[in-house]
Amino acid sequence: xxxxxxxxxxxxxxxxxxxxxxxxxxxxxxxxxxxxxxxxxxxxxxxxxxxxxxxxxxxxxxxxxxxxxxxxxxxxxxxxxxxxxxxxxxxxxxxxxxxxxxxxxxxxxxxxxxxxxxxxxxxxxxxxxxxxxxxxxxxxxxxxxxxxxxxxxxxxxxxxxxxxxxxxxxxxxxxxxxxxxxxxxxxxxxxxxxxxxxxxxxxxxxxxxxxxxxxxxxxxxxxxxxxxxxxxxxxxxxxxxxxxxxxxxxxxxxxxxxxxxxxxxxxxxxxxxxxxxxxxxxxxxxxxxxxxxxxxxxxxxxxxxx
Length: 306
Description:
Elements: E1 6-11, H1 15-27, E2 31-37, H2 43-50, E3 55-56, H3 60-64, E4 71-74, H4 78-90, E5 94-97, H5 109-112, E6 121-123, H6 127-140, E7 145-155, H7 161-165, H8 167-180, E8 186-194, E9 202-210, H9 217-239, E10 245-253, E11 258-264, H10 276-296
Parallel strand pairs: 1-2, 1-4, 2-3, 4-5, 5-6, 7-8
Antiparallel strand pairs: 7-9, 9-11, 10-11
C-alpha cells in the first residue's frame, strides 16, 4: 500500500462507479483504490482492469474477504445497498453510500460531515440532494424555512438504469434531506429527465417559503441581502470540491417564496460534462472519503464548511 493511504473499494462498476474510479485515481490524497467489484463481467470491470486495478465479479463477498480494505463506496442500487450495509458494518468497513437507500446519516460535506466522521455508514442523499440541500441550509441560516421544494432536471442520457430504477427512492430521500440537513420544516423533491439534444447540463431550481408566522414581508425583504450572502458563501464552499457548481439565478423573493437556480457541469473525468448529476455525487463521495481516510490516518484536515 502507498504510504499514508487507506485502501478503498468500489462496488458497482456502472457510470457512477467508473467516474468515481477515475476521481480516486487522479485526485485522492489519502486513499488507494484496491478493488473494483461487480456481480458479472461488464464494460466497467474491463475498464478497471485496463486502468490497472484489481477487479472481482464476486460482488460484496470479494470486498468482505479483504481485511485491509477499510472504506467501501457502494455505487449499486438502493435495494442492493440495504443488503450490503449490515455486511460491511459487521466487517468493520466504512460504507459511503452513493445510492438513495438512506441507511446511514444524511451527509453534505460542507454542512455536517465533521459531526458524523464516526458513522459506519455515510448516506450521500442523492445527486439532487447534494446540489440543493446546501442552498436550503444556507437560506435557513438566515430565515427559518417552512417549506422547501426542489426540481432537479437532468439530461436523459445521464440517467442510467440504476438511476431510473431508484427514482422513487430519489424523491423520498432528497425530500428528507431537505428537512434533516437543510432544516426545512416541510419539503418536496421532483426529478425531471430532459430528452433534449444536445443534452442539457443539470439544473436545479430551489423554492423556499419562509415561516410566515414568524416573519413579516418587510422583514424578509430587508434580509434578502443576508440570504444572498449566505448562499454565495455556500456556493463557494461547494465549488471547492465540485468546480462546475454554479449559481445561475441568485435568490429572489416574489412576496411569497424565495427562488434560486443552480447549474452543475461535470468535470468530464469519465462521463460527458452534461452528467453533472453524477459528477456532484462522485465529487462529494471523494471529498467525504478523503476526509474519513485522513481521520483514520490521524491527519489534521477538514472539508471546508460555512
